[in-house]
Amino acid sequence: MKLIVGNWKLNPSTLNEAVALTSGVNYAIKAEDFERTVLLPPFIFLEELVKKFKQIAWGAQDVFWEARGAYTGEVSLAMLKDVGIGWVLVGHSERRRIFGESDEDVNKKIKAALAQDFNVIAAVGELQRGDEADEIIDSFKKSAAGLETADLARLTVAYEPVWAISTTPGAQADSPARSNQIIGELKHAAFKMFGEPSKKIKFLYGGSVTSENALKFLSQPYIDGALVGGASLSAEEFAAIVSVSR
Ligand code: PGA
Q1: Which domain holds residue 128?
Q2: Angle, CA 165 vertex, CA 185 and CA 29 arms, to 5°
Q3: Which ligand 1 atom is the nearest neighbour of the CA of 164?
């Protein structure tokens, strides 16, 4: 069963548009596919969307690790839980690159969210095409250091090469074979860190996934699903990605 995660990023601008997009997805996705589909809208829309569309698994695009205090602009896990959110994405390359998050920050976020029983999607990926796989593995190891093996069934790792993200100038999707190979290496690194329980971690590919190329990625042996950015902003396109991956 492949997991498909739609990350809306800083879109759309109004709650009405967010509701319209969700209605489209809700209509186009088969009922049995809801359990393997996660949507990540901006924080501000979450409460209303959860109320209106209870059958969808909703998640936040980020979270802070502290529970409360003097952290202007941040959102806590307890706040997310209070509005019924069960999933959270951390360490997206845009958070790392634009907002300066380090592997250590991402590690704190993963640990805090797993400890609070969230399903966590942690992203890793290299900046330039041709960067060494070692760097990706190193970032993964630092981001996942010290996690409890009992929590790994709630961890998903998204491999997203930054150069393949649709909004990066000149972006092109990675080749399915290469992303499969990198994910295979990540799985191997996870096994070395955590042993047998690491097999419960899901690994997604993210970077210019569309309804046209989704099947090529999702039929690779090591790829357990997709993290979809741009294409998740069209209900038809997103639903088509979910349906090809059945
Ligand atoms: P994209 O985004 O699907 O628009 O390339 C993917 C990502 O940010 O991981």
Answers
A1: 3-244
A2: 90
A3: 5
